[in-house]
Specification:
- The complex is a heterodimer of chains A (102) and B (235).
- Chain A has 102 residues and is mainly alpha-helical.
- Chain A has a domain of 40 residues.
- Chain A is 75% helix and 4% strand.
- A two-stranded antiparallel sheet of chain A has the order 1-2.
- The longest helix of chain A has 24 residues.
- Chain A starts with a helix and ends with a helix.
- Chain B starts with 17 loop residues before the first helix and ends with a helix.
- Chain B folds into 2 domains: 151 residues, no CATH class; 47 residues, no CATH class.
- In chain B, helix 3 runs antiparallel to helix 9, helix 6 packs parallel to helix 8 and helix 11 packs antiparallel against helix 12.
- Classes of the chains: A mainly alpha (102), B mainly alpha (235).
- Chain B: It is found in: Cell membrane.
- Chain B: Pfam families: AzlC.
- Chain B: This is Branched-chain amino acid ABC transporter permease.
- Chain B: Keywords: Cell membrane, Membrane, Transmembrane, Transmembrane helix, Transport.
């Protein structure tokens, strides 16, 4: 049930902000500070989520095969690999390190 | 990532050939649409049912928010903090919509439908076009191809993950963070963005062991106003 509550709230919230952008008069969200915050919020959230989903299990901080996978993804990004290849590199390296007992 | 040619809106500049616009739009739609597979797998690995994963892709349809939600649920977050994290990631779409409403000049009746497709990729393709007609075409083709593929591959990924059982053994638990990193990398252009990312990383990991699941991410979001405030004080 908790999952459905979370899904319902996310559906409503995410659609509302998409629609708001198309409906509000230009200018309402155009203040420089609001624009700066809107650009920086995803940066903060994505950085925190990347770190958490790589270095944690439950509420414990851990370093395991996922760290190697993320490093591979980072390398693929530096080499300007396409999106799917970046994800594939992370998955393959993580699986490889686990298979080797890491 | 998003480029805006100066020529847009200038009637003297001829529109792009339809075929070129469609080719670009399909390229983005197919490449990103296929990554719905990673979402389906991640959702199933997080203990979300196939139906729930499909409902998310059908009705939320903004990838980062979907990954964040299933990640938070997997970590044991309560539904409200999990949804809050997903919502904050979705707020950027409001700003895309603001740009698109001027560029596409959609009739009022179409806007509630078009709104569902206002995401990173459709905005990037639409803004890259030199005129309104190409922008509308690019937005529609990207939106349609991405929506169809994203939902199809979500279903396949979720079913496949259920079939193979332990997704971690296949390294599939690394797909979520890799997607986040790929979305984050192009945003790290200036010192300000890097400072926000670094502070958010420290806050997100630092509070993880001591606060309930989902809350540390919301605290990490405060890195954005905090860095802006510090910059304002220094200048």
């Amino acid at each position: 049930m908790n999952v459905w509550i979370a899904i319902g709230l996310t559906v409503l919230g995410c659609y509302a902000v998409k629609l708001a952008g198309l409906l509000v008069p230009a200018g309402a969200l155009e203040r420089p500070l609001v624009r700066r915050l809107a650009a920086l919020l995803p940066v903060a959230l994505l950085a925190a989520l990347t770190a958490q989903q790589t270095f944690s299990t439950g509420s414990a901080l851990v370093v395991d095969a996922r760290a190697a996978g993320l490093a591979a993804a980072g390398l693929a990004l530096l080499l300007r690999a396409p999106f799917l290849l970046v994800v594939a590199a992370a998955v393959a390296v993580t699986a490889g390190v686990r298979a080797l007992g890491g | 990532m998003i480029t805006e040619p100066e020529a847009r809106g200038n009637p003297a500049v001829p529109g792009r050939p339809r075929a070129a616009v469609i080719r670009d739009a399909l390229g983005v739609g197919v490449a990103v649409g296929l990554s719905g597979f990673a979402f389906g797998v991640t959702a199933a690995g997080a203990g979300v049912s196939v139906l729930q994963a499909c409902v998310l892709s059908l009705l939320v349809f903004t990838g980062a928010s979907q990954f964040a939600l299933v990640g938070a649920l997997a970590a044991g977050g309560n539904p409200f903090t999990a949804a809050a994290g997903a919502f904050f990631l979705g707020t950027r779409n409001a700003f895309y919509g603001l740009r698109l409403s001027q560029l596409l000049a959609l009739p009022r009746a179409v806007r509630p439908l078009a709104a569902h497709w206002v995401i990173d990729e459709t905005t990037a393709v639409a803004l890259a076009q030199p005129d309104r007609k190409s922008a509308r075409l690019g937005f529609t083709v990207t939106g349609l191809s991405l929506y169809l593929l994203w939902n199809l591959t979500t279903l396949l990924g979720a079913l496949g993950a259920e079939a193979i059982g332990d997704t971690a053994a296949w390294g599939l638990d690394a797909a979520g963070p890799a997607v986040f990193l790929a979305l984050l990398a192009p945003m790290l252009k200036t010192g300000t963005e890097r400072a926000v990312a670094a502070l958010a990383l420290v806050l997100g990991l630092g509070f993880l062991p001591v606060l309930p699941a989902g809350v540390p991410v919301l605290i990490a979001a405060l890195a954005a106003p905090a860095v802006l405030w510090m910059k304002g004080r220094r200048s």
